[in-house]
Design brief:
7 strands; seven-stranded mixed sheet; 11 helices; alpha/beta
Length: 367
């Protein structure tokens, strides 16, 4: 009984400490979200281990050596692993940054090697991250041509190391196409587009999913909102919402709708602002937001959803919503399938906690 009394507080303390350290490290941007989530799950396992340790010892499954290892070995291993995680995170970030730069350099070489000029650059860049979207992107680009979007916007497709003909189709239809040399994920592909926009001096960016879920009619609506003052001020971010009057959307799964309602509540409680669609990927951005997102650490590395909106609201950026028209995906596979929604929710919990600590506590102390 004494052994249970000792093991439980020790392992529980290590678990709680590890959970706290993982969130603080994420808030300090010392480790990636993936590693932070892994350490959070490991902390939960330590809490369970502390709960069952005494029972295992009494049942004879845990020897005295095992008890000593639990008391003295685990803390040392955890500290060493945390240090290694920070180093790994640093290397991963550097590799991502290098990959983005190389991909953009290759695009510049392709552009400079062409004889024909593309004409005068617009002040709006439409960016579309695409990963294995050959079944959707041709139809979407045709719709963009029919809507005459090129009158007021340049188009950039970010092919996220697809294994299909996504890049070939985009280039065949006259679009600029960044071909990522490594798979960056949705957020990494967007950041590659932001970096291009900053390098070329675009005033505005609108991001559009390449799967066809965002109707092309939204492009002009977002652009008009970006260029229009409201209460005497220009917006920094314009979100296309599925839930405002005048919007049209498809049926949303119950699990995702639950997550949206939770994020709405969190944003309203922390910032006082009502955001009806905190998970929308249809967004218009001003130049100062593009510059902030393009910098290392300014943009979430995996899921830039409610966590990123929270960050920008806490930093004083002006966020506006407009009604949007969205459709269900016709072809291909969504990134939110299988166990991914569960992992997504866990990531958001960690990320939102880290954002709040970083923006409300760390920045206040620094100021």
């Amino acid at each position: 009984m004494a052994m249970e009394t000792v093991l439980f507080p020790v392992l529980a303390g290590i678990g709680i400490g590890l959970l706290t350290v993982s969130v603080l490290a994420l808030a300090h941007k010392k480790i990636t979200e993936t590693l932070s989530l892994i350490w959070g799950l490991f902390a939960f396992l330590l809490l369970l281990a502390g709960f069952f340790a005494g029972r295992l010892e009494r049942a004879g499954y845990l020897s005295s050596r095992g008890v000593l290892f639990s008391l003295y070995g685990i803390p040392g291993i955890v500290l060493a692993a945390c240090f290694i995680s920070a180093r790994i995170s640093c290397l991963i970030c550097r590799m991502r940054e290098a990959s983005m730069q190389i991909s953009l350099i290759k695009l510049e070489e392709e552009i400079s090697g062409k004889e024909t000029e593309r004409g005068e650059r617009k002040n709006l860049l439409l960016i579309m991250p695409a990963y294995n979207e050959e079944k959707n992107i041709r139809r979407l680009l045709y719709q963009i041509e029919e809507a005459k979007v090129r009158r007021f916007a340049d188009i950039l497709v970010i092919d996220d190391a697809s294994s299909d003909r996504t890049a070939r189709i985009a280039e065949g239809m006259g679009c600029l196409c960044v071909k990522c040399i490594l798979h960056q994920g949705y957020a990494g592909a967007l950041r590659t587009g932001y970096k291009y926009a900053v390098d070329k001096g675009y005033s505005y960016v609108i991001q559009l999913d390449a799967d066809g879920q965002h109707d092309v009619c939204n492009i002009e609506v977002l652009y008009r909102a970006l260029c229009t003052k409201e209460d005497g001020q220009m917006p920094d971010i314009v979100l296309g919402s599925r839930f405002l009057p005048g919007s049209r959307s498809f049926s949303i799964p119950a699990a995702k709708m639950f997550a949206i309602n939770i994020f709405r509540l969190i944003l309203r409680m922390i910032t006082g602002q009502q955001i009806t669609d905190p998970t929308t990927g249809l967004q218009g951005l001003s130049a100062r937001v593009i510059s902030f997102y393009a910098c290392h650490g300014g943009f979430n590395s995996v899921y830039p959803d409610a966590n990123t909106i929270l960050q920008m609201l806490l930093r004083g950026y002006r966020v506006r919503e407009v009604p949007a028209v969205m459709h269900a995906r016709k072809e291909g596979k969504s990134i939110h399938t299988g166990l991914k929604p569960f992992v997504y929710m866990l990531r958001m919990i960690f990320s939102i906690s880290a954002v709040y600590i970083r923006e409300r506590l760390f920045r206040s102390c620094a100021e």
